[in-house]
Amino acid sequence: YPSEFLTQKITEDNQIPLHVNVSASLQYVAGLKGNALIEFFHNNIAEVENEELRHLMWSSVLFYKTPDVEAMACVLLSTKAIYFLLDDTLICVHEHQSDFWTQENSDCENSSFHLSCCFVLKLNDLQSVNVGLFDQYFRIAGPSADHIVTCLTRDSYNTHAFIQQLMAVLSLLARTPSPEPVDKDFYSEFGNKNTGKMDNYELIHSSRVKFIYPNEEEIGDLTFLVAEKMDGLTNLQSLNILLYVLAFQVNPVEGPASNCSLLQPKTLILTSSDLFLFDEDYISYPLPEFAKEPPKKDKYQLADGRRIRDLDRVLMGYQTYPQALTFVFDDVQNQDLMQNLTLDHFGE
Predict the structure, then answer these.
(1) I need a labelling partner for 162 at 20 to 30 A (CA). Which of 10, 183, 221, 234 fits?
(2) Would you say 184 and 103 are in contact if contact means Cβ atoms under 8 Å apart?
(3) Where would I find the PLEKHM2 PH domain in this sequence (predicted)?
(4) How far is the C-alpha of 37 from the C-alpha of 29, rounded, in Å?
């Protein structure tokens, strides 16, 4: 350790996405290559001398305690813990809002010394991993609200690579085996199935960490929700979700009037007749076991919806990933003249 292959792989993965602006401290980390990166991990981040860095990934993250703040993080997976190396501005912005981030000397603006805070989730505290629809994101959950983090990879390949590495690392953990299952009789085995809701697919790892994948019902619920937003004009049987992707909407407001970020995270859903943008809650669902009440917001909130037949043209940028698409719709909205004529002339 580290093997030449591992050093090369971690160096290749150490790239901040092009659309993200980060502080000087994280840019410094992204500039490290090869053994310098491994040494940086051992000198500044690792908590135990004999732990090994196994995987590195740059991803947007959300914390359960601050669900409205998406921040870029360098996610480091070792044989002992998952480390989230975060921008120091995240602490400054949210100190007044929550005691989740605490820092002694928070003179962020005037300091020429750039800090990064590191959030640590020990593998021994890990209880479950929820993989989002189409592997666009995953949520890591520990024993309390402080231990729940969602990684918005927006990329099925990155999600798959991280989950694979996590399973491999968890296999090294020595945990006491689960107690032998108690033999159930026929009635208790089949008597509790009347909830009417199918559980998600669960894979219980040998380390007893649950890996939970979405089932067909999640797509069914989403299809029903989309049909509701289409004013009931469509037949649910014929409605198919063709595409579900986590994207960003470029905020059209310019100048100092806009306090919000230029890129607004959105869930884009395409059906055969409509294009929808939803604000999705990626961190609160499914509800953690300790949650006393449901979240204040629904999982999906409609932000915008347009009919494909009103689409005039699609403009494509020529920059590298992430690709920018501009959808131009006709001004006349929801004016279906033929339908109205039919009603006037032939309806009662």
Answers:
(1) 221
(2) no
(3) 114-178
(4) 8
